[in-house]
Amino acid sequence: MLETYPKVAALAEAAAHAVEACLADGLKTRGRASLVATGGRMPGPVYDRLREARIDWARVVVTLSDERSVEPDAPESNARLLRERLFVGEAAKAHFLPLTDYAEPALKALAPFDAVLLGMGEDGHVASLIPGSPALAQGMDPAGERMLLDVPAGVGSPPLARTSLTLAALLQARAIFLLISGAAKREVLARAEAGAELPVRALLAQARVPVRVLWAPQ
């Protein structure tokens, strides 16, 4: 399940190529495509490469796996990362669906997503499904009807209030790509695969959606 790459640059190249293929297939077979993007350090180099994809970006909808409750231009904003690293050149023609209170019906209409990009924290969280959160149980229900989850402040780094896709929403995908780097996160992944009750385990243990785990040492 674990794909190993020598450096983050090689991982980013592989991830961008794979996501491009997913989007191209969606455009070819359904006339539109959808991407659930993510924040953090890992996906930036992926977006730098993905924005060069020769696809009809005007027919692509991009949303986020989670967002912090900050102003759009704040350094902690995942939407800002997309504006700076993905929505550049032709890729700026893509339609962005922010995770607001009004996004739930639009997300349901968009699913299943052609590709979902995720990172993982050293506590095993994905999106903002964070251990210790009072909203975690609700968000981890694979049969839940809600696509969006409000996560109160006090958990995560930084410990800001957030909005997150639920596990049920993440699993409404045709492909999931989990991007990780470093020895510490590989150990967390190994613990999850061995049965540790971490949010990421729910992705690894399910058989509904194919998951590619891409790892680089640094």
Automatic annotation (TrEMBL):
<dbReference type="Pfam" id="PF01182">
    <property type="entry name" value="Glucosamine_iso"/>
</dbReference>
<dbReference type="InterPro" id="IPR039104">
    <property type="entry name" value="6PGL"/>
</dbReference>
<comment type="pathway">
    <text>Carbohydrate degradation; pentose phosphate pathway; D-ribulose 5-phosphate from D-glucose 6-phosphate (oxidative stage): step 2/3.</text>
</comment>
<dbReference type="GO" id="GO:0017057">
    <property type="term" value="F:6-phosphogluconolactonase activity"/>
</dbReference>
<comment type="function">
    <text>Hydrolysis of 6-phosphogluconolactone to 6-phosphogluconate.</text>
</comment>
<feature type="domain" description="Glucosamine/galactosamine-6-phosphate isomerase">
    <location>
        <begin position="8"/>
        <end position="205"/>
    </location>
</feature>
<keyword id="KW-0378">Hydrolase</keyword>
<dbReference type="InterPro" id="IPR037171">
    <property type="entry name" value="NagB/RpiA_transferase-like"/>
</dbReference>
<dbReference type="InterPro" id="IPR005900">
    <property type="entry name" value="6-phosphogluconolactonase_DevB"/>
</dbReference>
<protein>
    <recommendedName>
        <fullName>6-phosphogluconolactonase</fullName>
        <ecNumber>3.1.1.31</ecNumber>
    </recommendedName>
</protein>
<dbReference type="GO" id="GO:0005975">
    <property type="term" value="P:carbohydrate metabolic process"/>
</dbReference>
<dbReference type="InterPro" id="IPR006148">
    <property type="entry name" value="Glc/Gal-6P_isomerase"/>
</dbReference>
<comment type="similarity">
    <text>Belongs to the glucosamine/galactosamine-6-phosphate isomerase family. 6-phosphogluconolactonase subfamily.</text>
</comment>
<dbReference type="GO" id="GO:0006098">
    <property type="term" value="P:pentose-phosphate shunt"/>
</dbReference>
